[in-house]
């Protein structure tokens, strides 16, 4: 089988991947049908978890939604992988590395995550794009490869079909609506039961990240220069 992790791509190909992911995320946001509320994943932190079937891959698309007491651009700065804040609150994230800047608001990024039961340590290469529609900001992410970044020893390479964030500013500028998405092949080895267990814990991992983000918005100062330089 061909090792697709070492396939070289042109800048235009990376840009095409990024644009396609952005459009897919926008389309998902605009199409409100087909979502299933996961009552079993509900908690008392105001985080709603919904899933939707996809025609790509075996896993569902997962969307979490909550209200945040922070300006939209402050939240945006917190989650961007090329700014220093996400590593300060995301306990699952071991490191991020910007491999290349594809365009003004599009980057090629390596994400490395820590071992967290039932998952071993993982890593991915993603095209991450920052953008804005009339009523929301978004960050889209889609998996790819880069010849200078083969699979790390003792890590599992995952593939992100689509991931990211959508942030709606509210009339009160110190509040926003925050949505997080994941649709990925986590490359689970072993019996189907293990894959089912992982699918069940994904919403918990996402909810844990949102809880950590809420605390970070209170406790971690953000350089205003980073907010001013957001290209949206």
From TrEMBL:
Residue intervals of the START domain: 82-222
Any one of the GO BP annotations: lipid transport
SUPFAM superfamilies noted in UniProt: Bet v1-like (SSF55961)
Cleaved signal peptide residues: none
Keywords: Lipid transport, Lipid-binding, Transport
GO molecular function: lipid binding
PROSITE patterns associated with the record: START
InterPro entries in the cross-refs: StARD5/6, START-like_dom_sf, START_lipid-bd_dom
Annotated SMART domains: START
Domain of life assignment: Eukaryota
Function: May be involved in the intracellular transport of sterols or other lipids. May bind cholesterol or other sterols.
Protein name in the entry: START domain-containing protein
Organism field: Plectus sambesii
